[in-house]
Amino acid sequence: MIWLLRHGDAEDGSDDAARRLTEKGERQADWAGRALRALGVELEACLTSPKLRALETARISCGQLDFDLEPEVEDALAGGGLEIDALAGGRGEIMLVGHEPDLSDAIAAASGARVKLKKGGLAALDGRRLHVLARPLELERIAGWRRGLAS
User: Of all residues in the chain, what percent carry a pLDDT higher than 90?
Assistant: First the structure.
């Protein structure tokens, strides 16, 4: 399974690589990690764009898992096209944290599904099939945050 996570909501700024997550973006990253944990996902690797907002998203999300997983910076996720099979090949269950339109384009190339991954949204490809597509609100619900259900 290849999980694709779009970075959370980020600050505006002229230095694109240095844009940080907003509080909303931090919550979105947290929900993604908690949702992955609730789904019992056991990632073997997390690759992230070097852009700060993606790196922060990866660190926050991976920090919610029940096992230690340090995100690895991968320049190929910085933007400008994405070959997910080349990045994920042979690594087992993996998460790629990056940007649009690269993630949605990669989903289309792999599965034929035409989607637009929202900021903080998560998708999963199982072979050539789009297995999961979740917006941040759905991730929040999976994570159990509604009505104070999560710790």
Answer: 87
DSSP assignment letter at 146:
G
Q: Which residues pair with 59 in a beta bridge?
A: none
Classify 86 as helix, strand or coil. helix
Residue 145 confidence (pLDDT) = 57
DSSP state letter for 89: T
Helices (H), 41-148: 52-63, 84-88, 102-111, 136-143
Q: How far apart are CA 72 and CA 84, in angstroms?
A: 15
Domains by residue range for the chain, with CATH? 2-148 (3.40.50.1240)
Whether the full predicted model's pTM is greater than 0.85, yes or no, is yes
Over range 24-46, report the average pLDDT.
Answer: 96
92, exposed or middle or buried, with CB in 10 Å at 0-12, 13-18, 19+? exposed
Among the listed residues 23, 27, 28, the one whose alpha carbon sits nearest the alpha carbon of residue 11: 23
**What one-character DSSP code corresponds to residue 10?**
B
Pick the residue with more confidence: 144 or 134? Answer: 134
* Token pair belonging to 149: 């259900």
Average confidence score pLDDT of the chain: 93
